[in-house]
Design brief:
alpha+beta, 10 helices, 16 strands, elongated
Length: 422
């Protein structure tokens, strides 16, 4: 019994120990590792936020992209994206606070391939061209002819060519377009009714999206253009904005943009509020105290604006009504254009202008005769007596028409001098 006491004491000690002492501990769960976002991911987030008009959040992501670089320089591709996006967002931040308040008459989303078909009723001055818009294989390029069919604007590379009708024929005007020249092509030119204001689209690094809208005006007596100015919101957006027009005599305008629609579609808006950059208005309308982010978003983007119920207040677009608003169209000098007989200061100038108009009509009739003679010549047999006689008549008439056109231009110049043009 004495020998067993040490073993009994040991057994008692083991029983007294807590049971947990012999239980193995479970390993602690490892915390999931969060992968840091790359600068490129932050820039993509910034782009998506910007396209949603969440401009402040987009600016935050731009800052996060810089922080994610941890002091290292971006590669060339990332740096190009950063600079372009940073510039666009900064410019848009200023524009969004000064956006025009607009009144929408209607809006419709249409396939890009059919955009001119849907605009035909509203903008008959747009003339389709053979080549598509640069970067837009489905959208044909356009030229523009004014309502009185006196001026025609043709995109030409990075600039445009201006044609005016002289003696029934289209002739290029000796205008300096140097101020319009940029690396990227000029598209969708629109000449407003004042005959001097040009609106157009262009894709470049100085805007806030893809294609952006610009304004320029003739200066120096109509011999050159002013430096173009980037338009603000809601006319420009983070998307592609192709075309903008304003019809002063009828009180409505058109905007074509691919904002808030599918990749192969465009949004056509028609609006009734004269843009502030045309009215000379610089004061921003006060923001209502009850208005919130939705109001700011709608004003800057046009998305969510109600369609005006008072469409009757705006004349329906029509080519004849626009012509009726003017009795004539005579470019005296530069941006000095006569549209009414009452614009003439000199009775003698008015008399001579009427005589020149009659001569212009006679010249147009004789040009038709020349075309008929040329068609007859083409249809006649080679080496025939008829063809030889037609050749003589054609040469004679061509010489006569050349002389008549020069005399007509001299008549118009006399009218301009009588009206004080230099």
């Amino acid at each position: 019994m004495t020998l067993l006491r040490p073993y009994l004491a040991l057994a008692t000690l083991l029983i007294a120990l807590p049971l947990s002492a012999g239980t193995p501990k479970k390993p602690a769960k490892a915390k999931p590792q969060v992968t840091a976002k790359t600068p490129q991911a932050h820039l993509e987030d910034a782009r998506q936020l910007y396209r949603a008009y969440r401009i402040n959040e987009a600016m935050d992501q731009i800052a996060e992209a810089m922080a994610a670089a941890k002091g290292k320089r971006f590669d060339d591709e990332t740096m190009a994206v950063y600079r372009e996006l940073h510039g666009q967002i900064n410019r848009a931040a200023v524009m969004s606070d000064r956006a025009d308040s607009q009144v929408l008459l209607d809006s419709i989303v249409v396939p890009k391939a059919d955009w001119l078909k849907h605009l035909a009723a509203y903008e008959p001055g747009l003339q389709p061209m053979q080549e598509p818009l640069p970067g837009e294989s489905q959208m044909p390029s356009v030229s523009y002819r004014d309502a009185l069919e006196r001026n025609q604007l043709l995109p030409s590379g990075q600039s445009l060519v201006w044609h005016s009708k002289v003696g029934g024929a289209w002739e290029p005007q000796p205008l300096s377009t140097r101020a319009l020249d940029e690396e990227q092509p000029l598209v969708c030119p629109i000449l407003l009714e004042d005959g001097t204001t040009l609106l157009f689209g262009r894709e470049g690094a100085k805007g806030i999206g893809g294609y952006d809208l610009y304004i320029s005006r003739l200066r120096d007596g109509g011999g050159a253009f002013l430096e173009p100015t980037l338009l603000g919101m809601p006319y420009n957006s983070p998307y592609n904005d192709y075309l903008l027009s304003w019809h002063e005599s009828e009180g409505w305008g058109t905007l074509v943009s691919d904002r808030f629609c599918g990749p192969d579609s465009v949004h056509i808006y028609r609006f009734a509020q004269k843009p502030s950059f045309l009215s000379g208005q610089t004061k921003v309308e006060p923001r209502e105290e009850t208005a919130g982010e939705e109001f700011d978003f709608a004003r800057a983007s046009l998305s969510g604006l109600p369609i005006s119920k008072d469409k009757a207040a705006v004349a329906s677009p029509s080519r004849p009504s626009q012509k009726a608003s003017s009795e004539l169209h005579f470019v005296v000098q530069g941006d000095r254009i006569y549209r009414h007989w009452s614009d003439f200061r000199s009775p003698e100038a008015m008399k001579r202008y009427k005589a020149a108009q009659e001569a212009d009509q006679r010249l147009a009739e004789r040009r038709k005769q020349l075309e008929e003679l040329r068609r007859s010549w083409s249809a006649s047999a080679e080496d025939s007596t008829q063809r030889r006689e037609l050749s003589v008549q054609i040469r004679q008439l061509e010489t006569q028409l050349e002389t008549a056109a020069a005399e007509l231009e001299a008549q118009y110049q006399t009218v301009r001098r009588l009206e004080g043009a230099h």
